[in-house]
Structure formats: C-alpha cells, structure tokens
Specification:
Layout lengths: L6 H14 L8 E5 L11 H9 L2 E4 L2 H11 L8 E3 L5 H13 L3 E5 L12 H9 L3 E5 L4 H9 L11 E6 L4 H12 L4 E6 L4 H8 L6 E6 L7 E6 L3 H6 L9 E5 L12 H9 L4 H12 L3 H18 L1
C-alpha cells in the first residue's frame, strides 16, 4: 500500500495509526465520521484510523468516497463501500444493521462535512440505535460551525451568540417567501445553507429583511474561499458584482436582530424602506415582523414620517 500513499498524507496516515491505534474500537458499532468540506487536510487522525480499520464504509456516493480514500492512501475494494444516500437510506439501513449484528465495524460518511447535518445519515443513525446497536460519532469539519466561528456573532444582549439552524429553505418561491417571513420574526442568528443554482433566488427573497446583516461563506476551506458580511437588501447586488460569486456551495448566517434601548432596533430603517412602497398599516405590520420592534411605536413613527413627507411636498 505504501506505493499508493501520496507523500503529503503518508505521514498523516502513520500518525493516525500511532495516535489512535491504541484506542478501543468496539465491534458491532456504526462510526459516524465527519470528513472535510473542501480541504483534505481537515481530516482528523481518528477519522483516518477508523476509515482504515472499518470492515465496510457506508457512504453517500461510493465514487466520491473512493476518491477521497485513495487521496489518503486507503485502498478499499468497491465491495466494501455501501451506498447509503437520501433515496435509499431507510432500506440500506437494514443491510448495515445486518452487518452490525455480525459484529462488523461500519463507518458512515457523507460527501462532505458531518453526516446528518442537512446530509444523509440521520435515518441511518436512528435505525441503528432502534435496533440496539451503538452509534459512535467522530467530530470534525462542518460548514455550520466553520462559518459561525468567523461570523463574529454578538446578537441581542439577552441572546448572546445563540443561533438557530434552518438549513436549506424550500425550493418553491411561495414556500420560500413564507419561510423568510418566519425567519424575520426570529431574533436569534439563523444559519442557512444553499446551492449555487438557487443562491440568487434566495438573495431576492431575503431583500425584505432590509438592513439585517448576513455573513455569507462561499467555498469554505477551498482555494477560492470567500467570506463577506452585507445587509440582506444588498446580498443580491453583492452576488451580481462578479460571476464567480454565484459559484460553489454556500453557508449563510442571518445575524441576530439588533436592538436599541428603546426596543425599536432596526425598525425605523426597515419602516422607511417599506413606506416607500406600501401603505402605512402594511408597512408597520411587516416592519414589526422583520425587526421585532413594537408595532405601536412603529405606527407612531410611520405617521410622523408620512407627515414630514407631506410638509416637504
């Protein structure tokens, strides 16, 4: 096997054997293994060792996983790679459980990141636990925690850096818009994921959030990684500024609602934007939902703003 090991990972594979080899790896166990989201060097030593000693590896895409294994110098015949993806997860879980019952160690990997986080793996883990077998997680790379660590979340004082994981928004326009309206009422930070062919549609849907900040991570950990923070209303423009900006996989953090001592937060700025297009009652209702500011205060503010516009006319 040594001739197959790339020089850059040969030492890592040996280090994995040295550092993790003496640990206990129970039989009849499903090992949920996090793998890199882009940079192959982000694999953990324990993950390398488990992938090397597992009796079989269940994976989202056998061809993708085979390429990853070979990059690390781990040579596995195709018969020891089991396809377990979103279209067959319930049925394939039965085969995995049968192997576990025979005392095999089975590793599970998705195409990138941590299985079960908007990736297949949750149904498999649930079925294995229900069948009475152990599920042992190996922590590692995740686009969720990777972006959160760089987003600089401070949030509202009472929420701190608390966040909500929303994952992918619905693909249908009406359902996506309804989901955005629900997000507008969430004061905590919200983590979203999106594919390149839908990122522009998402940006258009998020415009209604006005000045609320969004930190976007594109191609995280890869050569052309890009992280930027913009107002929600400016996200579509940011994407349009360069053809490369709509390429790659995306993670986004909708920052927590900013609040001021009087409780209006971003309400005034949102209200001004909406009043330019909507009647007072509609603008106030939507501004309150987006910003979390009290509706009564926004209504009084709207009347003053409209009165000021009339005097200017």
């Amino acid at each position: 096997m040594s001739s197959l090991i790339p020089a850059s990972f040969g030492a890592a594979l040996q280090a994995a054997r040295d550092a993790a080899g003496a640990q206990h790896y129970p039989q009849g166990t499903l090992y949920v293994v996090a793998t890199p989201i882009g940079n192959l060097a982000d694999i953990t030593l324990r993950a390398l060792h488990v992938l090397e000693i597992a009796d079989a590896i269940a994976c989202e895409d056998t061809r993708h996983t085979q390429g990853m294994l070979r990059a690390y110098g781990i040579d596995r015949p195709g018969a020891r790679l089991l396809a377990v993806h979103q279209h067959n997860e319930a049925e394939a879980a039965l085969g995995v459980i049968a192997r576990l019952a025979q005392g095999e160690r089975i590793a599970y990997v998705s195409d990138a990141g941590t299985p079960g986080i908007s990736d297949p793996g949750a149904r498999l883990a649930a079925a294995v636990r229900e069948a009475g077998h152990r599920v042992l997680p190996l922590p590692g790379a995740s686009s969720v925690t990777t972006l959160l660590s760089a987003a600089g979340l401070v949030g509202a004082e009472e929420d701190g850096s608390a966040f909500v994981f929303a994952g992918f928004l619905p693909t249908k326009a009406g359902e996506r818009d309804a989901a955005v309206q629900r997000l507008a009422q969430e004061p905590r930070s919200v983590l979203l994921l999106e594919a390149p062919h839908r990122i522009e549609a998402m940006a258009r849907a998020l415009v209604v959030l006005g000045p609320r900040r969004i930190t976007l991570g594109r191609e995280l950990t890869k050569q052309f990684e890009e992280i930027a923070t913009v107002a929600a209303k400016d996200l579509a423009g940011w994407l349009a500024a360069g053809p490369q900006r709509t390429r790659g996989e995306f993670a986004l953090v909708l920052h927590a609602t900013a609040k001021t001592p009087d409780g209006t937060g971003d309400g005034e700025r949102v209200l001004k934007l909406l009043l330019a297009e909507l009647p007072v009652k509609s603008a106030v209702k939507l501004a309150a939902e987006i910003s979390g500011a009290p509706r009564n205060g926004l209504y009084e503010m709207a009347l003053k703003l409209r009165a000021g516009d009339s005097r200017e006319d």
